[in-house]
Amino acid sequence: MLFLLSLFLVRWNNLIEQEKITALKYYQEISELGENQNDIYRRSKCHPDFPNWMKNIDDQRNIMDLSIPGTHESCARFGYPIAACQSLSLYEQLQRGVRFFDIRCRHINDVFTIHHGPIYQKINFGGGVVQVFVDFLKQNPSEIIFMLLKPEYNEESCTRSFEETLDSYIEDYESYFYLDESAGESGDITVGKVRCKIVLFRRFEKNLPKPLGNQIIFQDNTIFTSHTSIVARVQDCYLVPTIFHISRKWNEIESLLNEADVNSQKIRSRIVSHSKSRFVQHKYNQPRRESRNILFINYGSGTGVLCFPGEVASYINPLLGERLTNNDNNFVGVIMFDYIEDYFDNLIANIIIRNFDSIEELFARN
């Protein structure tokens, strides 16, 4: 056992060292890019932490029945105003309650560095993503992390395939990954099955014979359905050429929100609602709603030549916040935000609360 532990440490440390060497070799100029200028954003006044909000969710619940806060370009904090999409680090997002992450990896020198387009985000996949996720799960074993992985920018100086490099990262932490590609067919990906794991979804084909998570086949700039080992319904209409096109983006977001609600089923009544800045309890007889074995992913993000991510978020986040507040019992699936803590209070909590029957139930476990 001691020998295996030593072997793991050597392998992992070698991989992390290779990431550092690659970053120094390839990104000396890019590393001078400024971090996202947080002070220009209207930060949320209220941002409670929810590090273990999944603790008492029934083990038999299907993961597709959960309403989950997520972030688009989860690691993109550099290259403002064009490339930056978040103000919080991965760890801060996890602490706040974000559980669905959009991770973009450039395959370079047989390691993964994190990019948004051509812009290096000053962290790497092993030390900056996998290690952060695993450490968080060790501290909060009740939680589930969903990772949507996409190859980004051009490949350079590699001797193996993207999936082979991914496998090298997973190898020593395989017990923390859920990689099954078939369970979705029968709809039995339950919360209990994937607690304390990183559930991997991928946006690429693979040739390796071993499982590497369920694939979601994306279509460009549209609302679409992906039929693989799971069914995913996705709104990713990311192109917002100017500020005058943001209203069209909102219509596309609302369209999938309505579809998710219509396709959900009534489970049981709940007794809580909340205002946009703090939670207010009252009784009513609306049912909590959950999906019918479809993974809904709704991107609130967008960008264009004359309209950058922050501008889109400044318009979309308040509209989403109001929609969530006014329809507080509705199932929403996964919503992917840019600047998830900006422009509207309690966006994360507004999504989390839908998975519980009362406000006390949520706060008692955190």
UniProtKB/TrEMBL annotation:
<feature type="signal peptide">
    <location>
        <begin position="1"/>
        <end position="18"/>
    </location>
</feature>
<dbReference type="GO" id="GO:0006629">
    <property type="term" value="P:lipid metabolic process"/>
</dbReference>
<dbReference type="InterPro" id="IPR017946">
    <property type="entry name" value="PLC-like_Pdiesterase_TIM-brl"/>
</dbReference>
<protein>
    <submittedName>
        <fullName>Phosphatidylinositol diacylglycerol-lyase</fullName>
    </submittedName>
</protein>
<dbReference type="Pfam" id="PF00388">
    <property type="entry name" value="PI-PLC-X"/>
</dbReference>
<dbReference type="InterPro" id="IPR051057">
    <property type="entry name" value="PI-PLC_domain"/>
</dbReference>
<feature type="domain" description="Phosphatidylinositol-specific phospholipase C X">
    <location>
        <begin position="57"/>
        <end position="203"/>
    </location>
</feature>
<dbReference type="GO" id="GO:0008081">
    <property type="term" value="F:phosphoric diester hydrolase activity"/>
</dbReference>
<dbReference type="InterPro" id="IPR000909">
    <property type="entry name" value="PLipase_C_PInositol-sp_X_dom"/>
</dbReference>
<dbReference type="GO" id="GO:0016829">
    <property type="term" value="F:lyase activity"/>
</dbReference>
<keyword id="KW-0732">Signal</keyword>
